[in-house]
What does this fold into?
Amino acid sequence: MDGALVETLPPLSLYVHLPWCISKCPYCDFNSHALKGGLPEQAYLASLTRDLQHSVGELGGRPLQSIFFGGGTPSLFSASGLASFLDQVNRLLPLEPDIEITLEANPGTIERGAFADYRAAGINRVSLGAQSFDDEKLQALGRIHRAAETISSVRELEKAGLENFNLDLMYGLPGQSTGQAVDDLAQAISLAPAHISHYQLTLEPNTLFAAKPPELPGHDLCWEMQQRCQDKLAEAAYEHYEVSAFAQDGRRCRHNLNYWTFADYLGLGAGAHGKLSGGSGVRRDWRLRHPADYMAAADPIEGTRILTAEEKLFEFMLNALRLEHGFSLDLLWERTGLARAFCAPKLNEAVDQGLLLVGGSHCRPSEAGLNFRDNLVAIFLPDGRENSRQAGTGNGESHGFL
It folds into this structure.
C-alpha cells in the first residue's frame, strides 16, 4: 500500500491563465498567443466563470489562500473585467482574510493609473516582467517595452500603494557580460521590489530561439554572473529561498510556495493544469490548450489522471528540492500520503551520493546537490520517464503546469 489517501488536505490556490500577448517573445515556451484582432475579454472571462462553476463542487468549500493571474500578458485585461471575475470567485469560494492575489504585467501594456484600478479590483501583488534594463538586450529578447517603461511602471505601482511587487530579471542574455548582468540587477534593486525572480535565459524547444539560437554566454560566464548577482542580492537583504526567487523579509511569494510544497491548486484557463488531493489520491487535470477551443467547450477539461506512488514522490521532490533550505520529511508524508518505507530507498540513494542531507526530520540539498540539482532530482524519476520542467518555476514567476 502506498498510502494514496491523503488525510490532511493541503492549502488551496487558484491559477488563472490569460493566454494573449501583443507579440510572442522568441524565448517563450508558455502557452501564449499573439493577439490577432481585438482581445475577446468578455467571452474569455465568461468561459473562466463557467469553468469555475463546474469545478467548485469538488473543492468542498476549502478557502483559497492565493490567486495568480498568469499568461500571456494578463495586464491586457481590464481592471473592471478582472474585478467582475474576482467577484464570481468570492461568491463561489471562501477566501482567506490575507489572500495574496497576483497579476503578471508587462511594462509595455500598462496605462497611467491602471495599477490603482487593478488594486481597487482586488489585486494586491504584481509581478512585473522587466527582464533587463538594457534596451539593446530587451530588443534582442523581443520585448515590446523599454527600460524607462519598467521604471515608470514601478512609480505607478508606488502611487497605487502596491508595494508588494516582483521584478522578473534574466541573465545570460545574448552578448551579455558579467558587469552588464550585475548592473541590471543593481538597477532592479534600486527600485526596491519586495521580490526578485532572477533566472538564466535558456533555449527551450519549440521556440524561435531554439530554431535560430542567438549567441549566449558560456557556462562558466553564466556561473560567474549567477554568483556575483547572488552576492549582491544577499548584500541588499534579499533572502534566497528558492532556486530563482529572492525576497525581502516576509515577502516570499505564497502562490509559488504552494507549488514548491506540493499543495493543491485549481487551474482555470486555456492549457492550465491543476492538482487536487482527496480520497482517490492526488489528481492532475488539464484544460484544452487553444483559447478558441477552451471558449467553445461546454466542458474544457481535456484530461485527468491519478498520480501513481512513484509519480507523487518524483513530483514532490521535483518541487521541494527547489527550496534552498529544504523541507521537513513530515511534509513529504503529509502531502503525498506515501509510506516512509516506500520513500526510503531513493532518499537513501540521494544521501549516499552526497546530494542530500537528512538531519532529524529535515531534508535539504547538500552543496553538491545545489550545484547538481538535476542529478539529485533524477534519482526520484519514475522508471522510464524523462525529466519534465514545471512551467514558470524555472523561468520567472510560476504559471502552473501549462
User: Anything to note?
Assistant: The chain has two domains: 12-258, 309-381.
